[in-house]
Structure formats: structure tokens, C-alpha cells
């Protein structure tokens, strides 16, 4: 979950990753969101091995084919496993610290940029894990992202993406409906802020997207959307294929 910034001074996420990489780990990232007052992102978890990954992530990595673009690569754990297993992978992240971390861990190909700024070769697999669709920020942005992703994936390629339906976090009434605040256009739109070692990063938007909404949006933009598997807590892995 990298912050949407190229300013290294504000790159809270990247600074934390580099500290861990340089064996200066003393604390985790704190997160504050419109859903929870406070939570943490444990830094060791971002450097996890394949065996420590959730089943959905393991499945996604197994499905990767051809040239892979790991979007929002973070510390590069997914890219590293793919590279070690003979895949041609490029790690992309908007966080300068994240990309430096990927390079220090031995990932050969990296891109420091926003995915919407990328143009170039088309990839056989676009990988967006750890609620990768979250980079969209708001549901109203989804169309633009899908259009762009379609322009950089091969005609016979695939997009592997996971997300979660967070409807369970809202209070349910006796009729089975949910009490959802009217402060957002869609209940999965969440605002976040990160704090690390006493420094607060800028606020950014993050999207949790239920599968049916993703499927409808994909149909409108010329994608087949397949539910590959479901996790244990309202999460899922989907595969998008251009029609």
C-alpha cells in the first residue's frame, strides 16, 4: 500500500521499507483510516517468503505467465519469488524507497512511476496484489484504470488482481441491510494516512472493491472477469482477460 507520492521526504512507506532492509527495524507503520482509528502494517510481513503468503497470493504467482509487471510491488516479495523461479518480471512502484528496496533485494528490472504514466511494451501478466485494485482510489476512477491497463496488457494476456468486500465492517439491521455512511459514493472507498517514526505522510484514497462491481465494470470496458478463488475473510482473486 504505497502512498501516491514521488516526494521522498513524504515517502513514509518507502522510508520504512529501507529501514527494514538496512536492519534498522525498530517499529511498524501505523495507519489511520476513515474506517479504523489506528492499525499497523508489520514491516516483516512486507518481506515475507512465498510460504508465508496467503493462499490467494500463492495462487496468483502460480498463474503468472510470460513477461510480468508487478504493479505496486512494495518491498518486492512477489517479484523476487517470480524472478527466482525463472519469470521475467518488472517491479513497478510510485514509492522511491520501495523501488530502492526492490533493487537492494536483487530484483533486476524496476520502474519508479505511477502506473498511469507507463507506456511501452505490453506485458503478458499484470499483477496487482495485496488489494492491488486499491490504487484506483475511488470507484469513479476505475474506468480510466481499466482502459489504461487494457492498453498495456497483451491481447492474449491477463490481469491478476485481488481485493476484499468490506461490507462486513458496517452495521447490519434486522432486515439484512447495512448502515452505510453517505460520506462516500461507494462503501469501499477509504481514506488512509500513514505514520512512521513520528512522521505523518499525506492522506490518500484506497479502494476495496466487491467482485460483482468489478465484474460489471470489466464487462463495460471489454474484459472477461473470472473469479479464480476466494479467501477466508471476504477477499478474492480475479483474472481479467481482454475480449
Short description:
β13 and β14 form a beta hairpin.
Features:
243 residues; alpha/beta; 7 helices; 31% strand
Q: What topology emerges from the helices and strands here?
A:
Blueprint: H1 12-21, E1 29-33, E2 39-41, H2 43-46, H3 55-63, E3 67-71, H4 77-84, E4 88-93, H5 96-104, E5 109-112, E6 123-128, H6 142-152, E7 153-164, E8 171-172, E9 178-179, E10 189-196, E11 199-200, E12 204-207, H7 211-220, E13 223-230, E14 235-242
Helix pairs in contact: 1-5
Shape: globular
Widest beta sheet: strand line-up: 5-4-3-6-7-14-13
Number of domains: 1
CATH superfamily, called what? Vaccinia Virus protein VP39
Low-confidence stretches: 3-8
Number of helices: 7
What is the helix content? 25-40%
Rg, nearest Å: 17 Å
Gap between N and C termini = 29 Å
Structural class: alpha/beta
Order of helices and strands: HEEHHEHEHEEHEEEEEEHEE
Largest sheet: 7 strands, mixed
Mean pLDDT: 91
Provide the CATH top-level class. Alpha Beta
CATH topology, which one? Rossmann fold
- How many beta-strand elements? 14
Strand content: 25-35%
CATH architecture: 3-Layer(aba) Sandwich
